[in-house]
Each structure stands twice: as C-alpha cells, then as structure tokens.
Specification:
It is a single chain. The protein contains 4 helices and no strands. By secondary structure, the protein is mostly helical. Helix 1 packs antiparallel against helix 4 and helix 3 runs antiparallel to helix 4. The chain is elongated and about 60 Å long. The N and C termini lie close together (7 Å).
C-alpha cells in the first residue's frame, strides 16, 4: 500500500512543520552555496593573478546575497499555503532574483564604476549556485513520499 504526503495533502500542523523545515533548509543551503561559490571564485582570482577582479568579486557578493535572501520571501510564503502556491512563490522569487541581480549589476557598473566583465562573470556562478540549491531542496520537499508497510 502506498501513501503520498505533499504540502497540500498533509494534515495542517504536519504541513506547517514541513514548510518551516523546508524554508530553513532552503535559506541555509542557498546561503551556504553562495558563500562556498564565492570562496571558490576568490581562489580562482588568486590562482589567475587577477587582483583587478576583487572589486567585481565584492560587488558580485554584495549583489547576490540580498537578491538571494529577498527572493526566498515569496517562496517561503508559497510553501506555507500549499503546493500550488509554492510554485507561484518560486516563480515570483525567480523574478525578484533576476530583477535585483540586474539592478545590482547596473548600479555596480554605472554608478560605482566596478569593472563590468569581472562583475558579470563573478555574479553568474553565484546566481547558478542558488538556482541549483533551490531546485534540489524544493524538488525534494514536494516530491511525494512513499511509505512502505
């Protein structure tokens, strides 16, 4: 006999606890992925002897962290109310992340005069790291669980 539990079919208390665990896991994983990727890109800057890229690295980190954390707000809100709204929350979070990242890039390059190539190249892996983590954490959270008897 198979029984599947998702956010929409679980008991309300159970679903709320699962939602909170998923949001916490998502925030910690996203932050960890961004920081690990930032560390890896810092090592790459050192290995390639590109000291002029440090300003782009700092800008990329300053752009990516707030974009990542603010994009998780609609995801968290969506997870707390069900699977359908979780999907809408994820889409809203993706739009927020893209807009904040693009705005941050424009501000860094135009207003702060940070080198554009370094900044864009260093924002990309941070953005992708969060995207991969979100897909993994949310995919695992909404996948139906099969209980064996």
């Amino acid at each position: 006999m198979h029984s599947a539990t998702t956010f929409s079919s679980a008991a309300p208390i159970e679903a709320d606890a699962a939602s909170r665990r998923t949001v916490t896991r998502l925030m910690i994983s996203a932050l960890g992925a961004i920081l690990l990727t930032a560390g890896a890109t810092a090592l790459l800057i050192v290995a390639l002897h590109r000291p002029q890229w440090w300003s782009g690295w700092a800008a990329a980190l300053a752009i990516s962290l707030p974009a990542a954390l603010l994009s998780l707000i609609p995801v968290a809100a969506g997870l707390s109310t069900g699977l359908r709204t979780a999907a809408y929350g994820y889409l809203a979070g993706a739009v927020i992340r893209v807009l904040l990242t693009l705005a941050g890039l424009l501000i860094a390059v135009i207003a702060a005069k940070i080198p554009p190539v370094a900044t864009v190249i260093l924002v990309a892996p941070l953005y992708l790291a969060q995207l991969v983590v979100e897909i993994a954490v949310l995919g695992r959270a909404v996948r139906p669980r099969v209980k064996r008897h």
